[in-house]
Automatic annotation (TrEMBL):
Record carries keyword Transferase: no
Any one GO MF annotation of this record: heme binding
Main location: membrane
UniProt keyword annotation of Cytoplasm present: no
Family: Belongs to the cytochrome P450 family.
Protein name as it appears in the record: Cytochrome P450
Subcellular location(s) of the protein: Membrane
């Protein structure tokens, strides 16, 4: 996969100077709390849409929650317009890049929430990095985000739901806390919910991530030189 991206991505890139700079770029300019907070309206709209969709289902009917949670993650990361099954990764990233370049500079773009691709294009335009940020670099980061962002988030939510089903007492505590926080259906802002109102739910999320890490790739480090002798 790294060869297909020309060594430009972060997830499968080589641990060299370029990789460290790209990683620092994402940590300092992209994956920051201010940018996460700026997407609050998107999260609110997509979660509300999912809740309304589930509430509209007839009593006794079934819903594929795994599929719905994956769609939710994709929608929040702003990739809902694309069909991943029919488009190759590079074509998907090309389409995203073209749409965002066309949007930049237009009057309509001023009212829209800046997403990951917008931020990378602005950094590319300013040119203050110690290395040139090419379109291929941006596409590689976008591809990483598609899978590292959407798939891992939906997987974590599915594991959290599964663990709560297995532990009814914890499920009851979460239900009670959520109902109290929303005060019988009154909508709450994200900041107020995270400010001490859903402490038990946050513990459930952290424990889920501890038990079921979203990423299957665990990097190991050799602490000392070891010699394994033949057995028998």
């Amino acid at each position: 996969m790294n060869d297909q991206k020309g060594g430009n991505d972060i997830v499968f890139g080589r641990n060299d100077e370029f990789w460290r700079k790209m990683r620092r770029l994402c940590a300092n300019h992209i994956l920051i709390s201010k940018r996460v907070r700026s997407h609050q309206a998107i999260r609110h709209n997509e979660i509300s849409r999912l809740v309304r969709s589930i509430a509209a289902c007839p009593s006794g009917s079934f819903i594929n929650l795994s599929e719905e949670l994956l769609n939710l993650s994709n929608n929040i990361t702003a990739f809902s317009k694309l069909d991943f099954c029919r488009l190759k990764l590079d074509r998907v990233a090309d389409k995203i890049l073209r749409e965002h370049k066309a949007k930049l500079g237009s009057k309509a773009s001023n009212d829209e929430v800046e997403d990951l691709t917008d931020a990378l294009l602005k950094i590319q335009d300013v040119g203050t990095l110690p290395f040139p940020l090419s379109d291929n670099h941006i596409k590689a980061v976008v591809n990483d985000t598609m899978f590292a962002g959407s798939e891992s988030s939906s997987r974590a939510m599915k594991w959290a739901m599964s663990e709560l089903v297995r532990h009814p007492a914890a499920m009851k505590k979460v239900h009670r806390e959520v109902r109290k926080a929303f005060n019988d259906g009154v909508e709450q802002k994200e900041e107020s919910l995270l400010r001490g109102k859903l402490t038990y739910l946050q513990k459930v999320v952290k424990e889920t991530l501890r038990l079921h890490p979203p990423s299957k790739c665990v990097l190991t480090k050799l602490q000392s030189q070891q010699t394994i002798s033949k057995l028998g």
